[in-house]
Protein backbone atom coordinates (compact mmCIF):
# COMPACT_ATOMS: atom_id res chain seq x y z
CA UNK A 1 0.00 0.00 0.00
CA UNK A 2 2.69 2.47 0.97
CA UNK A 3 4.82 1.31 -1.94
CA UNK A 4 2.03 2.08 -4.37
CA UNK A 5 1.54 5.49 -2.80
CA UNK A 6 5.26 6.22 -3.18
CA UNK A 7 5.22 5.16 -6.84
CA UNK A 8 2.06 7.10 -7.63
CA UNK A 9 3.12 10.34 -5.96
CA UNK A 10 6.52 10.20 -7.68
CA UNK A 11 4.81 11.25 -10.91
CA UNK A 12 4.65 15.04 -11.32
CA UNK A 13 1.28 16.68 -10.72
CA UNK A 14 -0.25 13.71 -8.94
CA UNK A 15 -2.04 14.27 -5.65
CA UNK A 16 -3.08 11.06 -3.94
CA UNK A 17 -3.51 10.52 -0.23
CA UNK A 18 -2.13 7.50 1.54
CA UNK A 19 -5.67 6.58 2.63
CA UNK A 20 -6.89 6.55 -0.97
CA UNK A 21 -3.99 4.36 -2.06
CA UNK A 22 -4.58 1.93 0.82
CA UNK A 23 -8.25 1.67 -0.08
CA UNK A 24 -7.62 1.24 -3.82
CA UNK A 25 -4.83 -1.30 -3.31
CA UNK A 26 -6.94 -3.33 -0.86
CA UNK A 27 -10.03 -3.25 -3.06
CA UNK A 28 -8.17 -4.30 -6.20
CA UNK A 29 -6.31 -7.06 -4.35
CA UNK A 30 -9.67 -8.40 -3.22
CA UNK A 31 -10.99 -8.20 -6.79
CA UNK A 32 -7.95 -10.13 -7.98
CA UNK A 33 -8.47 -12.80 -5.32
CA UNK A 34 -12.12 -13.19 -6.24
CA UNK A 35 -11.22 -13.68 -9.90
CA UNK A 36 -9.58 -17.04 -9.03
CA UNK A 37 -6.75 -16.31 -11.47
CA UNK A 38 -3.20 -17.04 -10.34
CA UNK A 39 -2.02 -13.90 -8.56
CA UNK A 40 -5.14 -12.10 -9.75
CA UNK A 41 -3.34 -11.39 -13.02
CA UNK A 42 -5.32 -9.12 -15.27
CA UNK A 43 -8.15 -8.45 -12.85
CA UNK A 44 -5.98 -6.64 -10.32
CA UNK A 45 -4.15 -4.54 -12.89
CA UNK A 46 -7.26 -3.62 -14.82
CA UNK A 47 -9.27 -2.62 -11.78
CA UNK A 48 -6.38 -0.69 -10.20
CA UNK A 49 -5.73 1.26 -13.40
CA UNK A 50 -9.38 2.20 -13.83
CA UNK A 51 -9.95 3.14 -10.18
CA UNK A 52 -6.78 5.22 -9.89
CA UNK A 53 -7.53 7.12 -13.09
CA UNK A 54 -11.03 7.79 -11.80
CA UNK A 55 -10.43 8.74 -8.16
CA UNK A 56 -6.90 10.17 -7.80
CA UNK A 57 -6.39 13.86 -8.58
CA UNK A 58 -4.09 14.62 -11.49
CA UNK A 59 -3.80 11.03 -12.67
CA UNK A 60 -4.40 10.43 -16.35
CA UNK A 61 -4.66 7.07 -18.01
CA UNK A 62 -0.96 6.93 -18.88
CA UNK A 63 0.11 7.57 -15.28
CA UNK A 64 -2.44 5.06 -14.00
CA UNK A 65 -1.15 2.36 -16.35
CA UNK A 66 2.50 3.12 -15.64
CA UNK A 67 2.07 3.13 -11.87
CA UNK A 68 -0.01 -0.05 -11.98
CA UNK A 69 2.57 -1.91 -14.04
CA UNK A 70 5.42 -0.70 -11.82
CA UNK A 71 3.78 -1.85 -8.61
CA UNK A 72 2.76 -5.20 -10.08
CA UNK A 73 6.31 -5.82 -11.32
CA UNK A 74 7.53 -5.13 -7.79
CA UNK A 75 4.94 -7.30 -6.04
CA UNK A 76 4.85 -10.41 -8.22
Concise structural overview:
With 76 residues, the protein is mostly helical. The chain is 70% helix and 0% strand.
Backbone shape: globular
Q: Roughly how much helix do the residues carry, as a percent range?
A: 55-70%
Strand content: under 5%
Q: Would you tell me the structural class of the helices and strands?
A: mainly alpha
- The Cα radius of gyration reads 11 Å
End-to-end Cα distance, whole Å, is 14 Å
Strand tally:
0
Q: How does the major sheet shape up?
A: none
Helix count, per DSSP? Answer: 4
Total tally of structural domains = 1
Indicate the low-confidence ranges by residue numbers.
Answer: none
- Overall pLDDT score: 88
Order of helices and strands: HHHH
Write the layout of secondary structure elements.
Blueprint: H1 2-9, H2 18-34, H3 43-55, H4 61-75
Helix pairs in contact: 1-4, 2-3, 3-4
Explain this structure to me?
The protein is 70% helix and 0% strand. The mean pLDDT is 88. The protein has 76 residues and is mainly alpha-helical. The protein has one domain. It is globular, with a radius of gyration of 11 Å. It has four helices and no strands.
Question: What key attributes describe this structure?
Answer:
single chain, 76 residues, mainly alpha, globular
Amino acid sequence: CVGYWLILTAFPGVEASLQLCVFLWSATTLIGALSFLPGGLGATEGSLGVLVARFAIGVGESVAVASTLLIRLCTL
